Amino acid sequence: MESVNLGVLAELKELLAEGFEVLVERFILDGQARIDKMQEALSAGSAEVLYAEAHGLKGSSRNVGANLLADYCGQLEAMGHAQNLAGAEPIFSAVVKEFSAVCQALQDFSVA
């Protein structure tokens, strides 16, 4: 499965023109900040922060067609909402790995 739906990216690139690169930059910077906060939340056992950050990254991931990343974030969001962080670490690791793949795909697409 590809990290990003290329059809969604093509539509965004056409719609936003030069703004597409700004979207990519913001997604990467915001996403990394959210991942950092999720890591801190897991370390501190803060379900509320995990919920909020996973929810935010899930939405922005769906917007750029990164559906697998959004699905992983949705799992963390649900765990945070349920106040049950047992088993969150492997899902968080999947988020980090998939976020990296999505960022690479977005950067490759923005220069194509």
TrEMBL record:
Chain positions found as Phosphohistidine: H55
The superkingdom listed in its UniProt entry is: Bacteria
In the record, biological process GO terms are: phosphorelay signal transduction system
Q: Which GO terms label this protein's molecular function in UniProt?
A: protein kinase activity
Report which residue ranges the record marks as coiled coil.
none
* HPt domain location: 16-109
Q: Does the keyword Endoplasmic reticulum apply?
A: no
Which terms are listed as keywords in the entry? Phosphoprotein, Two-component regulatory system
Entry protein name: Histidine phosphotransfer protein HptB
Organism of origin is Marinagarivorans cellulosilyticus
